Amino acid sequence: MSYQPSEIADLVLLLALGPVIVASFRRTKIVLPAAVYAAFAAMICGYTFTILEGFWLSDVFNLLEHASYAVAGVAFLVGIVRLRRSMGPGGEVKR
Amino acid sequence: MNTAVVALDVISAVSFAAAALLVLFGRFESPLVSRAVRNVFAGAMGLYAFVGLSNVLEHAGFTTLLDTFEDFAEILFIPAIAYVATMMLQNQQVEAQLSSARQMSAQNDLLLNIVDTVPGGILVVGPTGAVTFANEGAERILGMRSDTGGSVRITPSWTLVDPATSETVVLAQIASQGPLNRRRLTAQWPDGTSTDLVFSSTPMSSQSGDLGGSVIAFEAAGVRG
Asked: In DSSP terms, which residues pair with B185 in a beta bridge?
């Protein structure tokens, strides 16, 4: 049974700042693609799995952790591509 | 299992790196996505590209050298994203203020055009009687000239007289009174000619609520030689 304090700090930071991040993005006129929210969700999963792997089914949760970051990376990439496409030539957001 | 982890880390490193490059060099045509926002966002993506690379090197058995720095990269990610979100919101607020200022400027220009098109004279007079604005009509009827600054006008040598009482009236009196509705006054010029004028005025409040002068409108009712 082991975990790193930085892993706990990562998760606490995400849980503390997550609502601020979501609220700030929602107040802007830019509509974030669902892929970006999926990426954040994957990051939360990754942070959670990395803590769980220290306690239980370490190989499984380690794999899930790395899978989460891979999903997050791809989702961020897709989200950013969609975000660029959603912006019109004058910077306005197509809804 | 290890091969799968390495494969996932490769996907993670490549996709985060691609996302970072896209944010950094791609075209985002919104003022909300400023250069600063893009730099920080790309930095956040770069942090996880670095984490992915470190994991690839570690799990593929090359080196654990980068592992020491992984924690720092991971812990900086969320604050960086939070910074991006709040900065975008701030950019939106700044953009709204700039847009509002541009609208006000356009309205001001429109108002000045209207005021200068009016054939009568319009003056803005401070509580001391100093003229701070005169439209083209006022310049034409009363011969008021702009000073070099363009905002404060010089009062020429005419004298305003109340024809009913023959008393001299100064602009400060009109500015310090309440609303005035079509009061007849005569402007007497040094060459002996006089111009009959009809004055109306509306008092203005200063920011402290005190009387801050008046807007005075007038029209020429006739010229006597």
From this structure: B197
Closest residue, chain A, to B87 (C-alpha) = A24
Closest C-alpha to A90, from B171, B95, B183, B220? B95
For residues B54 and A70, give the distance between their C-alpha atoms in angstroms, rounded to a whole number: 14
Phi, psi at B145, each rounded to 5°: -115, 150
Complex ipTM, two decimals? Answer: 0.89
Give tens-digit pLDDT for B126-182.
877 788 888 888 888 888 766 555 555 666 678 899 998 989 988 888 888 778 888
CA distance A42 to B211: 63
Distant-in-sequence, close-in-space partners of A66: CB < 8 Å, separation ≥ 6: A46, B4, B5, B8, B9, B12, B55
Q: What residues of chain A lie within 8 A of the CB of B33, using their CB? A: 30, 87
**Residue A72: closest CA among B1, B47, B87:** B47
In Å, how far from its chain's centre is CA B203?
26
Which among B8, B15, B29 has CB closest to A87? B29
User: What are the tokens at A15?
Assistant: 């849980």
Question: B75, A6: Cβ pair inside 8 Å?
Answer: yes
CB-based contact B81:B28 (threshold 8 Å): no
The pTM score is 0.72
How many beta-carbon pairs under 8 angstroms link A with B? 117
Q: What are the residues facing B184 on neighbouring strands? A: B198
